[in-house]
Amino acid sequence: MAVKKLEHVGVMVKDMEASIAFYKEVLGMELLGKAEHPDPNIKLAFLGFKDAKETELELIQGYNDQLPQEGKVHHIAFTVDNIEEEVQRLKQLGVAFIDKEITTLPNGSRYMFFYGPDGEWIELFQSARI
What we know:
The protein is α+β, with helices and mostly antiparallel strands. Helices cover 15% and strands 38% of the residues. It contains two helices and eight strands. It has an eight-stranded mixed β-sheet with strand order 2-3-4-1-5-8-7-6.
């Protein structure tokens, strides 16, 4: 199995810049970068802690910011070496996929969502970032 680590947790936000400022000023996180999405209405930003090679926080603006307070965490993402192999392995296990195909971001990172046992969204993420 090639799942390597918990990649990131995606949180839905209404105002990207206000949320970035909050996580930087209140929690001491750093903006690691912003990413484009194939859907121009969706904005993405990744935050983390200086020199920490650990789970990142992904802020997502433009999907659905009307979720109840307990529903703001959009998904949990896991880093994989080879997304095609992992998708095939999970399909053999009978996992239900949300996406019909793998999405490739403009920076080359690739992802695909599937459902956990309680309907939670889980993402396989193959990063193009070094």
